[in-house]
Amino acid sequence: MKIKNICCIGAGYVGGPTMSVIAYKNPGICVNVVDIDQKKIDSWNSKNLEKLPVFEPGLAKIIEKTRNINLFFSTDIDKHIGKSEMIFISVNTPTKTSGKGKDYQADLKYVEACAKRIAKNSKSDKIIVEKSTVPVRTSEKIRTILKLNNRKVNFQILSNPEFLSEGTAMRDLEIPDRVIIGGDNTDKGKEAVDLLSNIYSSWVPKENILTTNLWSSELSKLTANAFLAQRISSINSLSELCEKTGADIDELAKAIGMDSRIGNSFLKTSVGFGGSCFKKDILNLVYIARSLKLYKVANYWENILIINEHQRNRFSSKIIDCIIKNSLNNEVLIFGWAFKKNTNDSRESASIYVSANLIDAQIKLRVYDPKILENQILDDLCNLNPSNKNYKNFITPLNDHDEYLVNTNVVVILTEWDEFISYDWKSIYKKMSKPAFIFDGRNILDKKSMESIGFIYIGLGKNG
Length: 464
Hints:
Largest sheet: 6 strands, parallel
CATH topology of the largest domain: Rossmann fold
Mean pLDDT: 95
């Protein structure tokens, strides 16, 4: 088999960027990204590259070089399934909201729907690649669906988890730490693994391509995210200890990070992690462990989420207590809604939870984020608690960070956008009501500099 056509089902944060790089590095392969969402496909096809549905530094340049050359976006799913030798499944796998495994287990309904659609439209042998984050042994479920619905075609299932970090996704794709490909230990399985390896080896050094069995590959994604989240919760738990003892979390993190056995990555304290993966993957890991009666293992990993929620709540309480204690205006200006800088993704952002806590305390919010649209901010809050109809009365999205400063005593930083550091904070201070407080949920501003201006600065893991 030779790979001439690739179909990727799912045009989201993983499918779009990943396929753009595969197309760019493999000009001899025709790559079709398909999705049922016409609006999303129209955005990918927009002449205005600033309107792409995914914001990632460097993505627009790759799209410009490949789109309508060997990279195409459409809703014609069945056609491209039929003509492709390799099909990537890159659809959402949210946490179940009902039934067995509710609030923990990954919901595979979209993956299963893809498998049924692939079976229905396949007349020649196909290699199916799991790109979505899935529980271990999901490939068995896909294989069963394919066999039940199409016994005439030979399907090979591969696991190829993504390890993209939003904000640096293009760098992660072009210079990956590793590419993991899991497949069956059969002649056909090994051939499929080699074919996918050859696609990646057009730009990834072969020593960085790791081949495993299916189960190891599927589990690697969940455990990688769990380990990263663990580090964040670990340093965040220590930030509270620093505040009580007089230690400084930044100095502590530097001391820890200089140990070569530990390293300095993911040791920056914050108001808590967000994004579409960490919480979902840990919940899935907890569910798998509990289903196997590994209760202590499950409890260990679940505590990472407990610390994350605690960090958000205690930061919210700091703001609420400050407003009450000092009889301040109950209008707060929030800088940042995205879950991290350099992305327009706000899924599971700490901003959503902190804002909900403040609104519950009857505090009105003005929100500015350089990449998040007004409807997204409102939708995020409403999705958090659909029964609460009052969110819209308490939140006002802003087009500029300089709005509504006059009646504001409190500025809260919840995303580490670089532009926030470069603001004219002297000018901001002059316009604000006094006393003027900064609650820095990312510790991106210099405490001494802010205090020299006149601000009362409250960071995380810093005494006083």
